[in-house]
């Protein structure tokens, strides 16, 4: 809360610390939605740019600052998919960073298969369940934070999560559980 108030007062270092604290969460949320590293990086930077421009409008209403950032990111992702630019994009393969170690082909295949099965199962959930699972398990938000982001009460989120997990259990192949 102190960092947000200092950022609202114009202290650049405070906003930088907020960025350090929340950038991974925002990036992971966006990356899961768009599936491309470059696009996720662009939308993450746009999220923080918009947050910086509108930091003065943020008010404490029992809502975590991270939930506010995820809401901005959620709107940017929606805008991205609505734009004609998205439909014209052609993605290219990602290059390994110099400090990354390439894993064995067997490990890569096994991880890819299990991730693909899980992502396929998540994509087969209804949109509300997809968002709930993403926020709760990929982003690590609490039930209360997820409720705020999705505009629902905590009981509804618990029910949505329970149903989503049960549906995932039915959709996943036995060897991926």
Automatic annotation (TrEMBL):
- Keyword Transmembrane helix tagged: no
Supply the alphabetized keyword list: Sigma factor, Transcription, Transcription regulation
The UniProt record lists the keyword Transcription: yes
Q: Which Gene3D superfamilies match?
A: 1.10.1740.10, Winged helix-like DNA-binding domain superfamily/Winged helix DNA-binding domain
**Which residues does the UniProt record annotate as the domain RNA polymerase sigma factor 70 region 4 type?**
117-168
Return the Pfam families for the record.
Sigma70_r2 (PF04542), Sigma70_r4_2 (PF08281)
- The segment(s) forming the RNA polymerase sigma-70 region domain are 18-85
The text of the family note is: Belongs to the sigma-70 factor family. ECF subfamily.
Protein name, as recorded: Sigma-70 family RNA polymerase sigma factor
User: Lineage of the source organism?
Assistant: Bacteria, Bacillati, Actinomycetota, Actinomycetes, Kitasatosporales
């Amino acid at each position: 809360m102190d960092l947000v108030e200092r950022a609202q007062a114009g202290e650049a270092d405070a906003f930088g610390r907020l960025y350090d604290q929340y950038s991974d969460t925002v990036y992971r949320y966006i990356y899961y939605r768009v599936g491309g590293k470059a696009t996720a990086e662009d939308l993450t930077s746009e999220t923080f740019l918009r947050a910086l421009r509108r930091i003065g409008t943020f008010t404490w209403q029992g809502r975590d600052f991270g939930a506010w950032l995820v809401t901005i990111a959620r709107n940017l992702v929606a805008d991205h998919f609505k734009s004609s630019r998205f439909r014209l994009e052609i993605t290219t393969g990602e290059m390994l960073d110099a400090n990354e170690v390439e894993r064995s082909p067997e490990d890569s295949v096994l991880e890819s298969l299990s991730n693909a099965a899980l992502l396929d199962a998540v994509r087969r959930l209804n949109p509300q369940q997809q968002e709930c699972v993403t926020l709760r398990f990929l982003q690590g938000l609490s039930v209360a934070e997820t409720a705020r982001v999705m505009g629902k009460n905590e009981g509804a989120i618990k029910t949505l999560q329970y149903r989503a997990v049960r549906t995932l259990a039915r959709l996943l192949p036995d060897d991926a559980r």
